[in-house]
């Protein structure tokens, strides 16, 4: 089995071979599947992420959640942890060039129904390989009642993700057929 760093490198190489047009098409297909997923449909409070250019584009999910009356949270990097904030159109560039909402921290973790989680790679058992900083692995234990949906491009779904004891598996992984 590959190491985490080898798998990250492999996925980066594969991603570089895919056109922006195909990545956009994959993003749309993944988001369409999320929008009909029972966990999405039943969620009142959703923790999303504001996607980077090399991730599944979550902007459709963000707008759809707002239109359907869901409370939307986005993470903000604070040192080694993620702070959650209500989404607002007042965004500023934060750590790693990610747009983050301004405003007060959201502390009612028990009200979060669904977390949409980015990753470098996933396997069918829900294991996730992140970027290596452990932000979600430190956050998710505080919201154990929430369903976690990993979303990824098709080439990010691999046979086996190497895991450590602190890694948290997703409830479900959603991708699309290329």
How many strands in all? 11
- Estimate the strand proportion: 15-25%
Q: Roughly what percent helix?
A: 25-40%
CATH class: Alpha Beta
Overall shape: it is globular
Q: Compute the number of helices.
A: 5
List segments where confidence is low: pLDDT < 50 over at least 5 consecutive residues: none
CATH fold topology: Rossmann fold
Mean pLDDT: 93
- As a whole number of angstroms, the C-alpha radius of gyration is 15 Å
CATH superfamily: NagB/RpiA/CoA transferase-like
Main sheet, how many strands, which sense, barrel?
6 strands, mixed
User: Structural class of the secondary structure composition?
Assistant: alpha/beta
Short description:
The protein has 178 residues and is of the alpha/beta class. The protein is built from five helices and eleven strands.
Describe the model.
The chain has about 180 residues and is of the alpha/beta class. The chain has one domain (about 5-175): Rossmann fold (3-Layer(aba) Sandwich), CATH 3.40.50. The protein contains 5 helices and 11 strands. Helix 4 (about 60-65) links the parallel strand 1 and strand 2. The radius of gyration is 15 Å and the shape is globular.
Give structural attributes:
Rossmann fold, 178 residues, 5 helices, three-stranded mixed sheet, alpha/beta
